[in-house]
């Protein structure tokens, strides 16, 4: 059997109501007694005081009862106020809570005592909490990518990408990227790769190159010279080229040193020379605006998107792990970086205060709707159980005040009569 949560309130209300009604009955009994006793100043005092107390008690009983129901069941106008006016009561209560409880000053004071970075940090440091969040974020990636790829977003990205990549700062960005590669010696690896490709090309096309050189000698010197010296010149040219390529060792060479010096000089010009930066920006815009490059870029994008979608579908995929690691790293940042903590606090406070007006209006409407939909008997019982005890004291006070006021009036009239 379900226990009544309002049982203690019900017992207390009945006890106080019984006391107030008993006091009212006592006033009625004293008034009757005053009429039964022989007439004297004292019996007159008792009778008048008891009648005033009884009248005061009845008046306050009527007022208290009229709040919740019709007194004696009679449909007297302006009684049963709370059941009849529950919609207006709900709206008034909602407005009061919204305008006087959830005020901007109170909300600011409460927000000032809340450590939002600590709350967020504890959440992000809990793997059991961040794992579902990482999976949810990873699950959103395909839809996000689809929204970027399709429709207006795709066309906008096609227009903006050349401008963003080819902006004024593109020279600095490219220069710094190249500086990082050069610092790690990657430019020499690229140089070695190009040389290797060149050697392979010469080896594979040596015969066709020899024939081309012979033909060039014949064109410049005539058929006789071409016949006599063409093969010799071709062999010497190819031999000299191969010899020079072999001399460019991975350890050191004049050509490698010259290439290294040229790369550093060009990187410095990209960072410091506005004209070279402008040339680079224009070149990048031209390359990125080319239809072939666009097609290639979107092909790469499509491949990356398919790979990402396959990885996201895997609960143990790399995408979820990367997002989890990012969330854990954010937790570390919030623990160690005071500036990040201040920014998070400011962001939360700004967000809450911006939402406050709308929340106040919605909160007032919500309270009004909830109270308005309550059953009349339910709202009457709920309110009476919570304030009825104090209202019974009104009945008691009214009875006692009436009693003593009636006695005072009787004594005053008696004093005037004797005088």
Automatic annotation (TrEMBL):
Keywords of the record, alphabetical order, are:
Membrane, Transmembrane, Transmembrane helix
GO CC aspect terms: plasma membrane
Transmembrane ranges, per UniProt, are 18-37, 396-418
Q: Which domain of life is it from?
A: Bacteria
> Per its record, how is this protein called by name?
Uncharacterized membrane-anchored protein YjiN (DUF445 family)
Which organism is this entry from? Acidocella aromatica
């Amino acid at each position: 059997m379900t226990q009544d949560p309002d049982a203690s309130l019900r017992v207390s209300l009945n006890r106080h109501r019984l006391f107030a009604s008993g006091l009212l009955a006592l006033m009625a009994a004293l008034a009757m007694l005053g009429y039964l006793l022989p007439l004297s100043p004292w019996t007159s005092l008792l009778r008048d005081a008891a009648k005033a107390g009884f009248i005061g008690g009845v008046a306050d009983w009527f007022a208290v009862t009229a709040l919740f129901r019709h007194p004696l069941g009679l449909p007297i106008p302006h009684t049963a106020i709370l059941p009849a006016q529950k919609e207006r009561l709900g709206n008034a209560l909602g407005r009061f809570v919204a305008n006087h409880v959830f005020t901007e000053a109170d909300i600011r004071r409460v927000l000032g005592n809340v450590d939002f970075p600590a709350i967020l940090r504890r959440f992000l440091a809990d793997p059991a909490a961040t794992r579902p969040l990482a999976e949810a974020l990873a699950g959103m990636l395909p839809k996000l990518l689809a929204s970027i790829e399709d429709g207006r977003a795709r066309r906008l990205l096609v227009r903006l990408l050349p401008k963003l990549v080819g902006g004024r700062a593109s020279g600095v960005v490219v220069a710094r990227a190249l500086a990082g590669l050069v610092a790690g010696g990657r430019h020499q690896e690229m140089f070695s790769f190009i040389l290797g490709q060149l050697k392979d090309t010469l080896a594979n096309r040596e015969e066709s190159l020899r024939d081309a050189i012979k033909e060039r000698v014949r064109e410049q010197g005539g058929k006789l010279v071409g016949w006599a010296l063409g093969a010799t010149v071709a062999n010497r040219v190819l031999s000299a080229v191969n010899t020079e390529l072999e001399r460019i060792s991975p350890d050191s060479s004049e050509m490698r040193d010259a290439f290294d010096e040229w790369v550093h000089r060009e990187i410095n010009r990209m960072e410091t020379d506005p004209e070279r930066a402008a040339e680079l920006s224009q070149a990048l815009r031209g390359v990125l605006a080319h239809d072939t490059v666009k097609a290639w870029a979107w092909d790469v994008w499509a491949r990356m998107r398919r790979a990402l979608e396959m990885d996201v579908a895997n609960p143990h995929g790399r995408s979820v792990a990367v997002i989890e690691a990012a969330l854990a790293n954010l937790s570390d940042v919030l623990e160690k970086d005071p500036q990040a903590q201040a920014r998070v606090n400011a962001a939360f406070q700004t967000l809450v205060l911006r939402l406050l007006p709308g929340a106040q209006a919605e909160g007032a409407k919500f309270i009004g709707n909830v109270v308005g939909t309550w059953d009349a008997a339910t709202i009457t019982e709920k309110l009476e159980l919570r304030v009825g005890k104090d209202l019974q004291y009104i009945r008691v006070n009214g009875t006692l005040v009436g009693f003593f006021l009636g006695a005072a009036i009787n004594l005053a009239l008696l004093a005037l009569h004797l005088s």
